[in-house]
Amino acid sequence: MSPTLVRQQLPTSVSLDSDGLPGAVGPRARARDWAEIQERMLVPLYEAAYDRLGVGPGTRLLGLGCGAGLALLLAAVRGAQVSGVDADEWRLELARERLTPDGGPGAHRLVSGGPEAAAAGNAASLFHVVTAFHPVGCVSTVEGLTASLTAATGLVERGGAVVLGGWGPLERCATAGVLRMARRRLADPPWDGVVGSAGWRPAYRDDLEELAERAGLRPDGSGRVACPFGYADLASAVRGLLSTGLFDAALEVTERRLVEKELSEALRPYQRADGTVWMPNVFRYLVARTP
Predict the structure, then answer these.
(1) CA distance 291 to 232
(2) What is the tally of structural domains in the chain?
(3) Can you give the pLDDT of all 291 residues of the chain as single tens digits?
(4) What is the CATH number of the domain that holds 267?
(5) Which residues constitute the domain of residue 69?
């Protein structure tokens, strides 16, 4: 699979129920929504980081929170030897399908858990690059990501690179406005504080640098990348954004239909005449070095 094709493909249309909303999905279906709809939106971010670090043959790369493995696949296409860890077994299953399509063990390791799981059976080889592309700005993930990065530092060669990804300036991220509007619509009792405390929040200027410092890493350059979110239709956009996990807390305390409705309303200003949804965004990445 070529990186260009991954970037240019639009997700397929999602079937609607009688009220024009996507049908109910479980954890496995949501993992596939992530793989087929949402994950590709950050391909420009992955490629920019790989270009900057010269990822290619001979690179040993570990992906933290590797999800369905698209970022790892793009690194493998460049010739890198990749490993990945994630807590979501359904996404890992899809990652294995992508990286070992013949069902064999292959040269790539994909395991459930944190960095320690990747180290098991791999103690002789330190990684050159660790990536944490999951956008910083999800409040519930910061503590866990700090712990994961701290643990991963011991698996990286001295001076090795750790790449962090995050949202860019609020005014340059259309999706940030959508998330903020949907969150505000869901902020009335009994959902007050639920979406805000466990979901998305606006990015702050030094989010990535502060995270690197907390993990004992030394910042060594950063960049900005255009990552527009494009969807075949409104239903695909709703399903893609729900697959991110940013609305999980709201879904736990209210009907899924209400969450979908409010998210759909927030997305409508970005729906074009042909039915597609297009939101321009800018993301940041930070390259940090291990001591």
Answers:
(1) 45
(2) 1
(3) 443 334 334 334 444 433 344 444 688 999 999 999 999 999 999 999 999 999 999 999 999 999 999 999 999 999 999 999 998 999 999 999 999 876 555 567 888 888 877 776 555 578 999 999 976 555 445 667 788 888 888 889 999 999 999 888 888 999 988 887 776 666 544 433 333 334 556 667 788 999 999 999 999 999 999 999 999 999 999 999 999 887 877 777 778 888 899 899 999 999 999 999 999 999 999 999 998
(4) 3.40.50.150
(5) 3-289
Peptide bond into 190 cis (omega under 30): yes
How many C-beta atoms surround the C-beta of residue 228 within 10 A? 13
DSSP 18-49: TTSSBPP--HHHHHHHIIIIIGGGGHHHHHHH
In the chain, the N- to C-terminal Cα span, in Å, equals 36
Reported pTM: 0.83
Q: Are 16 and 235 in contact (CB under 8 A)?
A: yes
Are 224 and 282 spatial neighbours (Cβ–Cβ below 8 Å)? yes
Q: Which two tokens stand for residue 149?
A: 């990065």
